[in-house]
Amino acid sequence: xxxxxxxxxxxxxxxxxxxxxxxxxxxxxxxxxxxxxxxxxxxxxxxxxxxxxxxxxxxxxxxxxxxxxxxxxxxxxxxxxxxxxxxxxxxxxxxxxxxxxxxxxxxxxxxxxxxxxxxxxxxxxxxxxxxxxxxxxxxxxx
Length: 142
Known about the structure:
The chain is α+β, with helices and mostly antiparallel strands. The chain is 38% helix and 18% strand. The protein has helices at 3-17, 39-54, 75-84, 116-128; strands spanning 23-26, 68-70, 90-95, 98-104, 109-112, 140-141. Strands 2-1-3-4-5-6 form a six-stranded mixed beta sheet. Helix 1 crosses helix 4 and helix 2 (39-54) crosses helix 3.
């Protein structure tokens, strides 16, 4: 799979799931250098973590780059999740207490939980942006 297709797969999965996600977290760490196009998102994620410590939502002792809470209803938070997910050591999204998206290991792992309707929407979204929808058949299901 091409790098572009890989990035789009993450983005499109998250767009399909966005309305269902009620909690999301990301680690602003990667085992590889962050691609130039997403470094600003990693820096934003670290600033978000600092604010969460200042607001009392995170303990100051925690690794500031781990488990950063994201609100996917907020476009800026969603951009961080969608942009960093293909490269992070860990990102996850939850719906009603169930993990529906998990990406990690610096781009080597992607697991999703999709309904048949969401899967059809994902295939259509991928094909609309020029990615072969058959890549969906290779996804690991949660």
